[in-house]
Amino acid sequence: MDNVLIEPEGRKAALRPAGVTVVALLARADDGAPSFDRRVAEQLAALDIPSFACTPAKFPELMATTI
After folding, report:
1. Is residue 4 within 8 Å of 37, Cβ to Cβ?
2. Which range of residues forms the domain containing residue 27?
3. For residue 27, is it within any domain?
4. pLDDT digits over 3-59, tens only?
5. Would you say residue 16 lies in a domain?
6. Which of 16, 44, 45, 48 has the most neighbouring CB atoms within 10 Å?
């Protein structure tokens, strides 16, 4: 997995103050386990951008709660 770092002054950081709702949906491995870069998820959380992984059945409920 590529190590993607999110700069605090980057585009993602600028979206929230501009009124944009940002949600990151994490990948799921073939066995159903979440597969993601923990550092990126932590950086998103620090920017108040929720990130989650879920089953397709739970996706609508989680999105409705998030937005």
Report:
1. yes
2. 23-66
3. yes
4. 455 555 577 777 777 888 888 887 777 777 777 788 888 888 888 888 887 777 888
5. no
6. 44
CA distance to 4, 12, 26, 41, 53, per residue, from 66 (Å): 24, 17, 14, 16, 13
Give the pairing type, strands 34-35 and 27-28: antiparallel
Beta-bridged to residue 24, according to DSSP, are: 51
In a domain, 33, yes or no: yes
The count of domains in the chain is 1
The set of long-range contacts for 44-51, using a CB threshold of 8 Å and a minimum separation of 24, is 44/6, 44/12, 47/6, 47/8, 47/12, 47/13, 47/16, 48/16, 49/12, 49/15, 49/16, 49/22, 49/23, 49/24, 50/23, 50/24, 51/23, 51/24, 51/25, 51/26
Beta strands 24-25 and 51-52 are parallel
